[in-house]
Amino acid sequence: MAEVEENPNIVVEEESIKKKRKRKRDKKNKMVVEKEQKKEKENEEDDEEEREVDDELKAEIKKEMKSGSGIMSAELFSSIEISEPTMKAIKDMGFEYMTQIQARAIPPLLEGKDVLGAARTGSGKTLAFLIPAVELLYHVHFTPRNGTGVVVICPTRELAIQTHAVAKDLLKYHSQTLGLVIGGSARRAEAERIAKGANLLVGTPGRLLDHLRNTKGFIYKNLKCLVIDEADRILEANFEEDMQQILKLLPKEGRQTALFSATQTKKVEDLARLSLTAPIYIDVDDGRRRVTNEGLQQGYCVVPSARRFILLYSFLKRNLSKKIMVFFSSCNSVKFHSELLRYIKIECHDIHGKQKQQKRTSTFFEFCEAKKGILLCTDVAARGLDIPAVDWIVQFDPPDEPKEYIHRVGRTARGEGAKGNALLFLIPEELQFLKYLKAAKVPVKEYEFDHKKLANVQSLLEKLVANNYYLNQSAKEAYRSYLLSYNSHSMKEIFNVHRLDLQAVASSFCFSNPPKVHLNIDSNASKFRQKKRKVEGSRNGFSEGNPYGKKGGDDTRQFVRY
Ligand SMILES: Nc1ncnc2c1ncn2[C@@H]1O[C@H](COP(=O)(O)OP(=O)(O)OP(=O)(O)O)[C@@H](O)[C@H]1O
């Protein structure tokens, strides 16, 4: 060491090394500081960017709200006064922002006002009426001893089951009780549940009336709120008698009433029956240029009657990886077509009103869970059902009116940003229906299909149906039901059974000739035929002298009228 100290050069050298090291340290520190500053700046920029994205998102939601194209609102559930247990349940469902119908309908309902709510399919109407219903029961401290405080009426059993399930989730952190009453299920178990006290009761009209009349211990004198889902349907003729009786039995004094639907009724006579008090009419989609969802691509194809099934078969075969619902006009037609498709190795589910409820329910849940598959159904599945991720809605038989078309296609493209497709089959005679769809603000494009690409299986199918007794019976019933439901179509000027070419109709049910079936077609038919003949001649050969529409001496078709 001494040697080192004595050597000035070395000392100088040490000094310079120290300086160098210090410079290096300083440089390093400077770099670290600069790096940190850069990072801070970047963070600030990120924050700024996030704020901008947030603002953009909010602006987007607001813009959508204004333009009416989206279903979401910019309002948070937390911005309205909802109890903690309900709020917790909503959080569990994963919802933060309200949909537009929820933002507009929940506040007046919470205030106890009567509401008529209209918003497109899949826009969250169920929670719009269930949240205030649950809040009402909670705030008036309903206990099982008080009986039923809220009744929710749905037109179909599956919809009631689904609404009951949503109510169950919403009541998760509440002490209030819940009940479900639907036709086709065990009446006694339902009665026991009611007698124990079901504060919120969901049901279909017939079974509800049955319990109101016959179930001992059903306390409904404390009813505070009546909700009618798919109100326009419930107030239609089929439910009229049951509804009249239900409304007679339920208390009116101090009762709140809420009506919801995608196609809301405005008929004064419907509303008068419900004794509404200064109802608030909320139509979220008022002024929108279309009534169906943005993400829904809709088309129709014109197909000769005889080729309808072949087109359906070819379509399904090409889309086996998709989730598809096919609508028919009768239970028998669903039954036959599902049997036929299974025979020719196309797996499918079927749901219709002639099945046992247990089968209907299990099919419904199976199809809900399926990633792909085909469900053949009647209009029993047209309204309200929230089946996840349906790709295609095929209307093999036309709906009774544009309103039903809207509900059917509403089973796809549900919720914000969802996509879906719809295909309507029309025979050339039915093309006028498009005019009515247009008037109802439903945008449909023509989808062309290549006739040459259709499967060449007609004669094979005819052989199959001719040689299989059960399939043959089923086909006959389906053919008959098709004609009967065609005859009862509400838009008779378009869907006129007397204009149908029966030979062609029979072909689509895989018959080589129209089968002999018993029909009970209205007597106005002959008047229509006479009138029609004068105007455009007889297209299908019906006349007084030829009541079965035979097409000449060698016509072997059999068609019996009663
Ligand atoms: N606030 C929300 N945010 C996000 N999704 C929601 C919200 N509210 C409801 N949903 C979801 O939107 C879907 C459609 O809701 P819902 O079944 O109530 O529609 P709807 O308006 O009753 O349709 P329809 O007219 O066909 O009966 C459901 O899957 C539901 O869980």
TrEMBL record:
Q: Any idea where the Helicase ATP-binding domain is?
A: 106-282
UniProt keywords (A-Z) are: ATP-binding, Helicase, Hydrolase, Nucleotide-binding, RNA-binding
Q: What EC identifiers does the entry list?
A: 3.6.4.13
Source taxon at top rank? Eukaryota
Q: Which reaction does it catalyse?
A: ATP + H2O = ADP + phosphate + H(+)
Read off the Pfam families from this record: CTE_SPB4, DEAD, Helicase_C
Tell me which InterPro entries the record gives: DDX18/Has1_DEADc, DEAD/DEAH_box_helicase_dom, Helicase_ATP-bd, Helicase_C-like, P-loop_NTPase, RNA-helicase_DEAD-box_CS, RNA_helicase_DEAD_Q_motif, SPB4-like_CTE
Q: Which Gene3D superfamilies match?
A: P-loop containing nucleotide triphosphate hydrolases
Q: Where is the composition biased (Basic and acidic residues)?
A: 29-42, 551-562
DEAD-box RNA helicase Q domain mapped to chain residues: 75-103
Composition bias (Acidic residues) maps to: 43-55
Hydrolase in keyword set: yes
Domain Helicase C-terminal positions: 308-465
Question: What broad class of enzyme is this?
Answer: hydrolase
Per the Swiss-Prot or TrEMBL record, what residue ranges does the short sequence motif Q motif cover?
A: 75-103
Write out the ranges of the annotated region (Disordered).
1-55, 530-562
**SUPFAM superfamilies registered for this protein in UniProt:** P-loop containing nucleoside triphosphate hydrolases
UniProt-recorded Gene Ontology molecular function terms:
ATP binding; hydrolase activity; RNA binding; RNA helicase activity
Basic residues composition bias: which ranges? 18-28
Present the record's domain note. Answer: The Q motif is unique to and characteristic of the DEAD box family of RNA helicases and controls ATP binding and hydrolysis.
Its annotated function is as follows: RNA helicase.
- Would you identify the family this protein belongs to, as annotated? Belongs to the DEAD box helicase family. DDX18/HAS1 subfamily.
In its UniProt entry, what is this protein called?
Answer: ATP-dependent RNA helicase
